[in-house]
Design goal:
Layout: H1 6-10, H2 18-36, H3 41-54, H4 56-59, H5 63-66, H6 68-71, H7 73-91, H8 93-105, H9 109-124, H10 129-146, H11 152-166, H12 174-187, H13 197-218, H14 229-232, E1 239-244, H15 255-258, E2 267-273, E3 276-278, E4 292-296, H16 299-309, E5 311-313, H17 320-323, E6 330-337, H18 353-357, E7 360-366, E8 369-371, E9 385-391, H19 392-399, E10 404-406, H20 420-435, H21 438-445, H22 457-470, H23 478-481, H24 485-503, H25 506-514, H26 523-538, H27 543-561, H28 565-576, H29 587-593, H30 600-626
Antiparallel strand pairs: 1-4, 1-5, 2-3, 2-4, 6-9, 6-10, 7-8, 7-9
Length: 629
């Protein structure tokens, strides 16, 4: 197509209608809410359904279509796969692979990196990649510290490798399942279990080579190789020991009542009395003269407390080893707030964190910022990393709580290792039955019944859930704990948004405008533009939302430029599942943000060259495997 064709092409752009403007307004509002997080993402998704159905005269979305996301095959399949992933995690098989990886890697950073990629990549192809990273964060953190390597050198590669692996099969990530559902609705063609496995292998190998050669050189060592949380969080001036004088006004008061929290930003973390340390359930313990208190506060507040409450400073600030008692009944650990956590939007005060979990928070990282004071007033978000001091049994409870990722493996984790054969067999059946070539099998065996078999991932995944419960791999109550309901609600909310884009002609309008690039770019160039645009959009909003917004536009653009719509759908799908340049584009990036001590810019430093490299490799791969026209 020549430049001379531009006016003729422009004439094909449809006129803007009121319905289009309404839908564009809703899309912009939803994007604004996603980026600013003024509302939780799942609440924004429900709000989207409400808007679309209330404005149905313009959006063309009926109530039935508005709630169709809840019954979508993609939503149900993701729900089932999250439950299956929970079953796998309960067996401890991924953790066992991680330990074997640690034994193999030893103190060699190159081996540690290679082992991280080798486990996270392939496993993420058959278990949803988000739970895989949640399971492996403590394993990799421990591997790094034991091998005298900075966790910062391994945790971003863990996240990126899980994204590569997620593109090996249909079930590797929720994005693939959603894209398959949208593709079937728009062009009548869905993804099979192994539709893009060939290209997925190419992406995995290319990305792994990049991380092993260039990527690890670009990664900073944000967290020291030797673990010292007091130094890492720069808490030397925020954790102090004081002795209670005879004339202290807090003598006789309980720990809970000793310090007026509305006046002072301070917490009493433990008491040393007559050579014995008290830290568990000390809220009701009464303070005596001579007690040595460990207090979390800043120097200015400490000065006021010393003057008003009758406290004397004791020596230098305590170290990690002093806060972690000799009998190992107490420890410092980092915990990461998971997506779907009941603490999201809460503060340490409103959630009664200390009372609920018998743990004191010394500091936390949020959005790349380390917060050491006024902790009680900060609302918790996904990916926030809290430095917690707690008894060992409390840490074990935190490890088993789906609200958190504890960045260290529990020494007393109770895995159902005897159920590993059942769990592996069920996953193989779930994948194998969908991928089975029933038609050729009918021809080879002469059994005509096979030709009539049409097994979908929804059927096998739901059957797998039943099988895991029946065989005891997962307990009935754990079904609900294993589901990230924010992801389910997000899917249910954005699916009707895609329907509105399609039915009002908004997707056609945008597609016609983008198709103008076809006047000076070949089809493969337009395809590359879609890949880059989807990657950039995914970097600021959910990967699932970007797929729903971009696939209808991609299909219309393909039709305008004479391209292969399926190739354009695949470009959008791969781009949305490989969002490397910000921590907010993909949940796995958020999970490693705090434990790796990363800055926002670290993701772009390592991820931008990788994203550019994969944009070329993926587009060439799509052209080779599926053709452009």
């Amino acid at each position: 197509m020549s430049l001379a064709a531009l006016p003729a092409q422009a004439e094909t752009i449809p006129p803007v209608t009121t319905g289009m403007l309404v839908v564009f307004g809703i899309v912009l509002l939803v994007l604004f809410l996603f980026v600013t997080e003024l509302l939780p993402i799942d609440v924004t998704a429900i709000f989207t359904i409400v808007l679309l159905t209330l404005l149905s005269p313009w959006t063309n979305v009926s109530v039935t279509e508005g709630i169709s996301g809840f019954s979508s095959t993609a939503t149900v399949a993701v729900l089932a796969m999250l439950i299956l992933s929970t079953g796998i995690s309960q067996t401890g098989i991924v953790q066992i692979l991680g330990r074997k990886m640690a034994t193999f890697a030893g103190n060699s950073q190159r081996k540690q990196l290679g082992a991280t990629i080798a486990v996270a990549g392939p496993v993420s192809g058959f278990i949803n990649n988000t739970p895989v990273v949640a399971i492996l964060v403590p394993v990799i953190s421990d591997l790094a510290h034991k091998g005298n390597t900075s966790p910062s050198k391994l945790l971003i590669p863990l996240s990126f490798a899980s994204m590569f692996g997620g593109m090996l099969t249909l079930i590797g990530t929720s994005t693939n399942l959603l894209a398959s559902s949208v593709s079937e609705r728009l062009i009548g063609r869905s993804f099979s279990m192994f539709t893009f496995t060939g290209l997925g292998v190419v992406v995995l190998v290319t990305g792994s080579i990049y991380l092993m050669t260039i990527g690890h050189r670009l990664l900073p060592e944000r967290v020291p190789a030797r673990e010292d949380y007091i130094e890492e969080y720069e808490l030397q001036n925020y954790v102090t020991e004081v002795v209670v004088r005879d004339d202290a006004s807090i003598v006789g008061k309980t720990v809970a009542d000793a310090i007026d929290e509305s006046q002072f930003d301070a917490d009493i973390m433990q008491i040393l009395r007559d050579g014995e340390t008290y830290f568990e359930g000390i809220g009701g313990k009464r303070i005596r003269a001579g007690d040595i208190l460990t207090i979390r506060t800043d120097r200015e507040t400490l000065g006021s407390l010393r003057e008003l409450e009758g406290l004397n400073l004791v020596g230098t600030p305590p170290t990690d080893s002093e806060l972690e008692t000799d009998d190992e009944t107490q420890a410092l650990v980092e915990i990461v707030i998971q997506s779907g956590s009941s603490l999201l939007g809460e503060t340490l005060t409103t959630s009664s964190f200390r009372e609920r979990y018998d743990a004191s928070v010394l500091a936390f990282r949020s959005g790349g910022e380390t917060i050491r004071s006024r902790l009680d007033n900060v609302k918790l978000r996904v990916g926030d990393t809290l430095l917690v001091q707690a008894p060992s049994d409390s840490i074990d409870r935190l490890s088993s709580n789906p609200d958190f990722i504890v960045a260290h493996e529990s020494e007393t984790a109770d895995y159902r290792t005897e159920k590993i054969p059942w769990a592996v067999g069920i996953i193989i059946a779930v994948v194998g039955l969908v991928g089975m070539p029933w038609g050729p099998l009918a021809s080879a065996t002469g059994i005509d019944a096979f030709a009539a078999v049409d097994v979908s991932i929804v059927q096998t995944a739901l059957a797998g859930v039943v099988a895991m419960v029946v065989t005891g791999v997962i307990k009935p109550g754990e079904i609900y704990d294993g589901v990230d309901w924010s992801v389910i609600l997000l899917l249910a909310g954005v699916i009707p948004l895609g329907i509105a884009l399609e039915q009002t002609g908004a997707a056609t309008y945008i597609g016609s405008i983008i198709a103008l690039t076809g006047t000076f770019l070949p089809v493969i160039g337009v395809l590359w533009v879609f890949y880059i645009a989807t990657g950039l959009i995914t970097s600021v909003i959910s990967n699932n939302a970007s797929v729903v917004l971009m696939i209808p536009v991609a299909v219309k653009t393909a039709q305008e430029v004479g391209g292969n719509p399926f190739a354009f759908i695949l470009a959008v799908t791969f781009a949305a599942s490989t969002a490397f340049i910000t921590p907010v584009g993909y949940q796995t990036n958020l999970f490693v943000y705090g434990p790796g001590g990363y800055k926002f810019s670290d993701y772009a430093r390592v991820g931008a060259p990788l994203q550019l490299l994969l944009s070329v490799v993926t587009i060439l791969g799509i052209a080779f495997f599926w053709g452009l026209t």
